[in-house]
UniProtKB/TrEMBL annotation:
Gene3D superfamilies: 2,3-Dihydroxybiphenyl 1,2-Dioxygenase, domain 1. SUPFAM superfamilies: Glyoxalase/Bleomycin resistance protein/Dihydroxybiphenyl dioxygenase (SSF54593). It comes from Formimonas warabiya. Pfam families: Glyoxalase. This is Glyoxalase.
Length: 120
């Protein structure tokens, strides 16, 4: 298993992009629309990745609820079974929004959402 990215839902995508590019020094890896009013940007290279999600209609964010850490696994189905066998409650999923990715969420002991993702 390896660390994939940190997801941040942001109030203003352009301000956040400017900060992560100019201050942190991350480069835009990819940027795409994810539905009406929602845009996603992945920044970084190598194993350092930050995902910014901007929604022009939603200016409120809760950093405790809107942050998740994603970890790549070889098989979501296998990991799903392992998590259930360990008695960890599934927060949501599994989801497969396109043929290339499948994922689900659990919460760590502190309540932080953890995403296990299979890139297919």
């Amino acid at each position: 298993m390896k660390f994939c990215w940190t997801t941040l839902r942001v109030k203003n995508l352009e301000e956040s992009l400017k900060f992560y590019q100019e201050i942190v020094g991350l480069k835009v890896e990819r940027k795409f629309s994810a539905g009406p009013g929602t845009e996603i940007v992945f920044l970084g290279d190598g194993e350092t990745k930050v995902e910014l999600i901007g929604n022009g209609t939603n200016q409120e964010v809760n950093m405790g609820e809107d942050i998740s850490l994603g970890f790549e696994v070889g098989s979501v189905d296998e990991m799903f079974n392992v998590v259930k066998e360990k008695g960890i409650e599934i927060h949501s999923g599994p989801f497969q929004p396109n043929p290339h990715v499948k994922f689900f969420f659990v919460r760590d002991p502190n309540g932080l959402k953890i995403q296990f993702v299979e890139n297919m």
